[in-house]
Amino acid sequence: MLSNHFQNGIETAKLAWSRLPNTEDGEGDEVVGVSRKNDGGRVESLDYEVVENHAYREEQAQRGKLYVGYYVGVKWFFALLIGVGTGLAAVFINISVENFAGWKFSLTFSVIQKSYVAGFLLYILINLVLVFSSAFIITNFAPAAAGSGIPEIKGYLNGVDTHGILLFRTLIGKIFGSIGSVGGGLALGKEGPLVHTGACIASLLGQGGSTKYHLSSRWLQFFNSDRDRRDLVTCGCAAGVAAAFRAPVGGVLFALEEVTSWWRSQLMWRVFFTSAIVAVVVRTAMGWCKSGKCGHFGSGGFIIWDISGGQEDYSFEELLPMAFIGVIGGLLGALFNQLTRYITYWRRNYLHKKGNRFKIIEVCLISVITSVISFGLPLFRKCSPCPEADPSFPIECPRPPGMYGNYVNFYCGKDKEYNDLATIFFNTQDDAIRNLFSAKTIHEYSAQSLLTFLVMFYTLAVVTFGTAVPAGQFVPGIMIGSTYGRLVGMFVVSFYKKLNIEEGTYALLGAASFLGGSMRMTVSLCVIMVEITNNLKLLPLIMLVLLISKAVGDAFNEGLYEEQARLRGIPLLESRPKYEMRKMQAKEACGNQKVVYFPRVIKVADVVSSLKSNNHNGFPVIDHTRSGETLVIGLVLRSHLLVLLQSKVDFQHSPLPCDTGGGSLPIRHNFSEFVKPASSKGISIHDIHLGPDDLEMYIDLAPFVNRSPYIVPEDMSLTKVYNLFRQLGLRHIFVVPRASRVIGMITRKDLLIEETEDPATVELQSTSV
Ligand code: ATP
Ligand code: MG
Description:
The protein is mainly alpha-helical. The chain is 51% helix and 6% strand. The strands form 6 sheets. Strands 1-15-14 form a 3-stranded mixed β-sheet, with no helix packed on it. A 3-stranded mixed β-sheet has the order 8-10-11. A 3-stranded antiparallel β-sheet has the order 9-13-12. Helix 11 packs across helix 19 (539-554).
């Protein structure tokens, strides 16, 4: 197996491997193929590999130790900026959602006092306006901001770029779209979108701002390779979770467990740092808002369901019902994934093909149905008297009209009464969850109300998923899970009367089980649940239900994000190759296509016609030795060829190599000229206009080829090729016939070079794996 790190010593060996017969038309071409990946259509692979062309090597040679310090320092500074940016975005989204929702509930409550019908219509109308604004933004301005964005970011960190996911307009669409969709009371959350928001902020910072909207700065344009941006986007994802749940460690683990495909210890520190910054920013903002400066956004504004006053201990008898919760979580989670898969498939192939108008009408219809259900169903419930206030955990019942109440009075005539279904349905999601998790009182909710809510909310969450608005699945998942958890808790309380059991504990376990059953995360989810509830004592129980729910869910289908990634045509490479690959060889994956390659010196017209005739992104470049043998000298990327064609500076009149006179290769380009902007298709061959004189010129590709592409023998097992591809984040692999000779051997000890390697190269290269 060959690697970039070994380049100097064994490059010659690699080239010897790839001897080609001297043929012009490719007949008998011995490069068997370029290994195939699944074609995702609108997705494009990223170049995470170090392109070791002449410009890169020259640049590396000029860099000293000082540069490494500077490079690392800037990376840390960017990690800080990502933390601050994501934290502020999260605060902004939360303040806006709480204010819109608070204002909506206050207004509805005050109108209800006079007329139910008017209150009902007003409630529907406000929700409709908010949801419409969100859908309008998404369909007309930022289509890539629909959904949670996590499958796309997962794909990005796996090596495939979905067009438009990290653009400035996507960021804006995500922020304002989430405010509308969450504030409008749909059965979705703002946490997934916050992960996407963090990733967008990171990517935009990484490319120095948005050039399209003239919001860029040359000072920030420091990280220009896909590799560097990958690290920043990882920081952004962790920052998003840290901000959404105020769970910094959960954020780091989420990035590690769920979204990234490559991980290094240096990255862990930076991600940890970013998450810590987010925690500080969010905490500071909340402290500032406590004094009422942020309108309806008060202490309950951010997700934090502190149930530390809950159940202190658990007894052996409880483990069985808790395991049962895990099983329900696995079953309902897997069912959720399956149903959303069918609905998403149907939407994409039928409904959403009809145009934006249908997308908007669909969301608006779902909004009206959600409003009618959440307002209408509580009307059928009787009011209950408020429980006695516990001095150590005082509950005012009902609190003043508005969103802060633990208990919602709704239409109850008397002051000291509440409507249990309205308390969870006719409330902001954060308050509803806090109510479901509440531990100090028992039987606040009737089984009938919980069951009604479970069925209705589950159905709404399934139907809302995949509509044209930003939507996260964490909070709906927590609501669904805590409802059946609490239901189980109620039965356990009445069964084991003597034990000190609290329903809130079961609600929490239910929430963990549903998320585990649907998203199939374990460690990160466990830590997030502990961080948001601030109850470390329940850790073993959360672990138990998560393990059970994941195992049960895995028996039926894949996790939610993997399923969605597949539906969206994102060719994710999972961590493990498929079993059948063991019996297959590399050459079998290449297909029957003839390899399209370029000679070292080629006529410009030939480059243009070749680039126009296919969509490949990488091409072998061949040269001839003095004795007439053909050698593969490396790989040239389409994007680099386009830069060369556009700049024209390397065009020459002579068909001879540019260093024929014995001199070295000319450097007319900075390495940075070869980078393409993040999440964008870059220039196309059709955008480049060359005159007849230009087309008659020649170009020597030698300085621009990646001289150490990865090369595998044709009979290498596909499992090995897969692991190489996945572990190194590759885009292309050359498949060649068996090597004819070996010029050396490297063992582990040969790689333990002390103090001789240029640290600049070590740091820069280490980012590629
Ligand atoms: P990317 O995201 O990089 O575009 P892709 O799978 O779309 O990935 P393509 O370049 O379109 O890549 O390749 C499609 C198929 O063509 C693959 O099966 C690959 O094996 C083959 N292929 C790629 N490059 C060449 C080439 N230069 N000559 C011949 N076949 C190639
Ligand atoms: Mg392609």
